Amino acid sequence: MGSSPARRRRRVRGPAVAVALALVVAGGTGYTASAADHERVVNGTFDNGTSAPWWTGAGTTGQVTGGEFCVAVTGGTTNPWDALIGQNGVPFEEGESYTFEFDAHATTAQRISAVTGEGVSPYRQISKQDFDVTAAKQHFTYTFTSALDFPDAGNGQVAFHLGGQTFDNTVCVDNVSLVGGAVPPGGPAPVTKKVQVNQTAYVPGLPKHATLVTDATTPQDWALRNSAGAAVATGKATPKGTDAASGDPVQIIDFSAYDTAGTGYTLVVGEDVSYPFDIGVQPYKDLRKDSLAFFYHQRSGIPIEAQYVGDTYARAAGHLNVAPNKGDDAVPCRADLACGYTLDVRGGWYDAGDHGKYVVNGGISAWQVLDTYERAVALGDASALGDGTLSIPENHNGVPDVLDEARWEVEFLLRMQAPNGMVHHKVHDAAWTGLPTLPSQDPQPRRLSAVSTAATLNTAAVGAQAARIWRTIDPAFSARALAAAEKAYAAAKADPNRLADPNDGTGGGAYNDDTVTDEFYWAAAELYTTTGGAAYRADVTGSPLYKGKSLTTRGFDWASTGPLGDVTLAVVPNGLPPADIAETRSAFTTTADAHLAQIATQGYPAPYQTSDGSYDWGSNGLVANNAMVLALASDFTGQPKYRAGVYETMGYLLGRNPNSYSYVSGYGDQPVRNVHHRFWANQLDASLPTAPPGVLSGGPNSGLQDPVAARLLAGCKPQKCFVDHIEAYSLNEVTVNWNSALAWVANWAAEKSDRAAGCAVDYQVAKWGTGQTATLTVTNTGATPWTGWKLGFSFGGGQKITNGWSATWAQNGRDVTATNLSWNAGLAPGSTAHLGYVASSTTADADPPAFSVNGEVCTRK
């Protein structure tokens, strides 16, 4: 809906300097650098009409005018560095030569300084050169050798000092360039495998695919080796040509027929060997917990204790008024708002790698964590989500731990409600804090941003959801949550166009959203499902988004929340007509089919499509949300193709991608380590940790909205726009809503693979020129009786069933179901049912690749 979250959520980091020596910079250059020249400045020509990632300091305001970056400088300052502009994240190498050049002119002649050095304390200087700027545009240049070393672009900076004048002035710069060094900006690229696999595990009974990068056009021989190095399966890869999203020439390796559980498998093609992986029936049992543990790590207002996270990740509580920290117990509104009150907004989750707490991102995150439980209760198995399953302070209190964790955020959302029922959009520091900064060491004052309709509706939706979940667990909390939700919804209806300010991005992301139709639909759906109220029902059924109209192949996120309402209406019992619920569920299967069709064309299976093929900020979160759509399609239909699609998608996130990274920390042999975070900042401070296991990186982003990404990845193909660097915040940031998506899907995947298949199918087919006859034997291989069963599969070609026996047969396109008859419904362990069909077909039509019973993929006899 509207612009992408990457554009809406763009974070413009200000200078890390506070005083003294800022440093040099501007972006691109009129000089055309060759690859060996290693241009260090981003956007030095300002040809795109923007100044990002340039910042302005105290006493300066700037904008791009006529292709130049023109800066208004307030007079009356004492020192040159009292008014400055600059760019952070500039790499320097000790002993290497650099040439700094730029064009400049000013309304009134003055002296300026071009400076390079360190962007954080102690602000050591590398070089400084003074230039006299006049009304006539001039070209300036100087060369220097660096005595400092910032090769990974972590702390280097360039800046212009414009202060020390008695008069106001305007200074314009253009064609800024800093060329030199031996190592490419961002450092050497990581080793990329030619054979890309899910670095964690594959599930028996499901498709198992890998991607081979090769220029060869003929099928390549592959071998699957066990941990001892012995070949246990061989075959030939299938050429796919050049993959559009990555630019890689690829072939697909299919080793689905091999189902022997084990660890340390590798795929080998010639001299190329994949990262090791496992084959097993419980590959996601740890990830389901680790992905939820992320939220305890992100808690605000409580110490993160070693007994729950270990000594490495323990830290003091943040924002509780313990010096130098400012507290969240009495936070005023931003000075220009003058709201006349303060709010106690302690608690909640820090949104991302910074110390901000945002209602519109917290809303979808809390909802998704709660829905992980609510969906499991309604359609799956919630036994692994009970009390005592997570390592958090509230375990063993008689309430499922997943609900305890979500409540920490729900309580915060309720505290953000203003007296009039509207909800403040966010709370965060008055200015951006530097990297690294622990929450307890953050000295910034805290401020509430304005209320917004979107934030108000997020609170209404989550409050209503919480009210029904806690109705019998904690009736008092349930009533309080519902009262706040109904008050918020009424306030939003009375003030429907209070939109967040897109320019409110100092100290925290803006999170502006120009369309709130989706939030109204979502909130109405939650309130109707909880209360059954006629007015809420009318708002649901009268919405243009009703019955899955907002589901798209791009996916949903914090700014596109309509599908959240659809999930609730399709999963949680309510009073809507069954035909409407069926139509909503059909919207999920239609979208899921589009995802599967896309995956079939890809070298790397990422169910995610934008109109221009680009990847947005947080693409991995969108990919995970689309895996959720596939999972729900599996829940609704029992078709094994959707279940297989979820595990294929998990493979992409866990290493089967063109960057050879597992985008989940702690999983695989090459996981992300240097996510953008102010505590998990080991890359900048060796005394601090890397991210704990189970944290999802934002992933590839074509926008490249940070200096490290822009320097290193210009011209990258969408899936290759990624680097594991702490300063690459537009690629490697972490957020609560991306991890809530991972947690939902990981818990679903764990549930569906927690046990060996309880069914087996023997499929025999006889074919002739225009038809085929198949007989199937379905066996209950589990330990409990079946009181009913439904077989599901998908044809591999154009087969059409013309007759069937011993079951009720139904076909929709390639998808087929066979439901038990009354006389063969009950199957005891070890018992079998025999059924079959006649179909029109050709000899080229492929057999079904997999079968499921009641949604569980069966082993093949």
Provide structural commentary.
Strands 12, 14, 15, 18, 19 and 20 form a six-stranded mixed β-sheet that branches. Strands 1-4-9-6-7 form a five-stranded antiparallel β-sheet, with no helix packed on it. Strands 2-3-10-5-8 form a five-stranded antiparallel β-sheet, with no helix packed on it. It is an alpha+beta fold and 861 residues long. Residues 1-36 have low confidence and may be disordered. It contains 16 helices and 37 strands. The longest helix is centred in the last third of the chain and has 24 residues, at 578-601. Among the domains are: 5-180, Sandwich (Jelly Rolls); 329-576, Alpha/alpha barrel (Glycosyltransferase); 759-860, Immunoglobulin-like (Sandwich), CATH 2.60.40.290. The two termini are 47 Å apart. Helix 10 crosses helix 11.
**Model regions low in confidence, pLDDT < 50 over at least 5 residues:** 1-36
Instruction: Tell me the CATH architecture of the domain at 329-576.
Output: Alpha/alpha barrel
Rg, nearest Å: 29 Å
CATH class of the domain at 329-576: Mainly Alpha
Specify the oligomeric state.
Answer: single chain
Quickly count the helices: 16
Structural class by secondary-structure content: alpha+beta
Global shape: globular
| Secondary structure: helix percent | 10-25%
Overall number of strands: 37
Strand content: 15-25%
**Rounded mean pLDDT score:** 91
Please name the CATH topology of the domain at 329-576. Glycosyltransferase
End-to-end Cα distance:
47 Å
Largest sheet: 6 strands, mixed
GO molecular function, one term: cellulase activity
Domain CBM2: 752-861
Family: Belongs to the glycosyl hydrolase 9 (cellulase E) family.
Pfam family, one: CBM_4_9
